[in-house]
Write a structure and sequence with these properties.
This protein is of the alpha+beta class and about 120 residues long. The protein is built from four helices and eight strands. The radius of gyration is 14 Å and the shape is globular.
């Protein structure tokens, strides 16, 4: 199992309002934009902007980062050996499969295995 990319999470009320400053700071355009339930997401540089109503964003605020891995099944075996707790079981989402895990030290992370198309387009262009 390999970590392909790590995103710092940023929380915003409005995605379109948040992106111009990040575009200027990173010198990049968003390389991923999608929606999940009531939330709009954009990845730009090493940031994942999570936007939408505060009550909806709060459902995802327990994780401190989003980490893209190449093999979610192998990750789960690693987490189990490290006494981590899966807090949100493996679920299908717009970018692939994901889960949330709390490490033994209390840190909680969202882990995502992107679709092969996203890996080819963003990680290995």
């Amino acid at each position: 199992m390999t970590i392909l990319k790590t995103y710092a999470r940023l929380w915003a009320d409005d995605l379109d309002q948040a992106l111009p400053l990040l575009e200027e700071l990173t010198g990049e355009q968003p390389h991923l934009r999608t929606a999940f339930e009531e939330i709009a997401l954009a990845a730009i540089g090493n940031f994942l902007v999570i936007a939408g109503p505060a009550e909806e964003r709060a459902r995802y605020a327990h994780a401190s980062a989003t980490v893209v891995v190449d093999d979610l099944s192998a990750l789960q075996a690693t987490l189990k050996r490290a006494d981590a707790t899966i807090t949100t079981p493996e679920t299908a989402g717009p970018t692939g499969r994901f889960l949330y895990a709390r490490h033994a030290d209390g840190v909680e992370i969202e882990y995502v295995e992107w679709t092969p198309e996203l890996v080819r387009r963003i990680i290995r262009p």
